[in-house]
Amino acid sequence: MGRQEKSILMRIQETVVKYTDIVSQISGVDVEVVDDRLYRVAGTGIFSGRVNENMAAEGYVYKQVLKTGNPQIIYEPGREPICHSCPLCNRCYEEIEISTPVSMNGQILGVIGLVGTSLEQKKQILQNEKLYLDFLDQITQFILVKVREEVRQEHERALEETLACGDIIGSSPQMQHLKESIHRVSKGASTVLITGESGTGKEMVARAIWKAGDRSAAPFVAINCAAIPETLLESELFGYVKGAFSGADPGGRMGKFELADHGILFLDEIGDMPLHLQVKLLRVLQERTVTRIGSNQVVAVDVRILAATNKDLWEMVQEGSFRQDLYYRLNVIPLRLVPLRERQGDIEELALFFARRYAKRLDKYFWRITDAAMEHLKNDRWEGNVRELENVLEFMMNMIQEDGVLNECTLPERFNSCKEGRGRIPAGSGGMPGQLSGVQPGTPASAVVPLKELEQQEIRKALSLYGVSTNGKKQAAKRLGISLATLYRKLEEYGLS
Asked: Domain 341-416 classified CATH 3.30.1240.10?
């Protein structure tokens, strides 16, 4: 198969081969399974020596199944219209073939084919056509159980690999440049000023510099200058001695500079630091020493400073609210993070990462994000940047159904994108838990029609439209969105045979 990534059926080939052998033994005919690229995943009898081959040149029936998603029964292989372009036309070794799709959540993963190569096998299949279709449907479900397990494990592996690479996610030119910059500046001791809008991941970049640098074995200490009251910020940074002020810890306390000795101190929201503390910070940067509050003892520290802000510090310098000398001292190595709307190419990668993260945290099954839902994500402005995108994916994962698909109906209400009839709880609506949008409390129970009754009505309607012949049932099953085998099972269950 070359260097192309393996299909999901190829990745669980061992399981597919096992079930194929079982089907062949029970049915008494040859069985083969192909993936969505027409590579033979498994085969018995005449196909056993041709596993892993690409059969695009001869798999005309399978192409039709992959295209339509409908089962195909070829009663006269080599002589029916669908076979006319096949290189084996008029000299086909098959006497009959039943093919059914292996599909999950609307995506066709491959095809299972039962092949009779003798008149005896053909007679056997014709006498038990419905049984064979139903049997294929059951085997498909067994394969899909393994597919779901494989998908979950792959998502977990992808999440672990991403986390192991330093949490820097994105392949856009801007992110590639940022990763290169982090690699170049991580080994030095110079101060770095990280700027960018709120939610762009400034602390993530700071931690990446720490992990990639030669101080990774020492502490990474972070402090948010905007989150701590001005009266406490000085003691948090520089520490204090016993009895320094009322309410202080009786034993005194070490400040963040001392805690980060030989490591990195990350000063987030540096633009919110009061002017009088800016003076003390500048002195520490110049002299590499700190003095605890209430003490005269000077303590030497070896700390690399990484600072971050979402404000325009140079504008603050012009206004007089930020010291010019401190600005120059901090802005030795500037790193600017571009907003998410300027790097749309990273949205899909980030969305998949957050979907996998919250699938694991919330113990949810996740299969994929539909193209339509992804387009909505890509076209949003993301004023809150990566943090907002993460929150949206967490919401979506809470709304996901058992099929494991994040579609338009799992998006928050503000996207106004749900075109299906599935109810959805608006994000932040404050509604009753489990209440669906469009369903008012107190709706009489008599207005609710049981699902089985609705299903019977639609099946009857489809059969009245398309007829009860084999071809009519195929068309009815297609219109109903179910397999032919499932339709046969439903007809028997409801006594409609």
From this structure: no
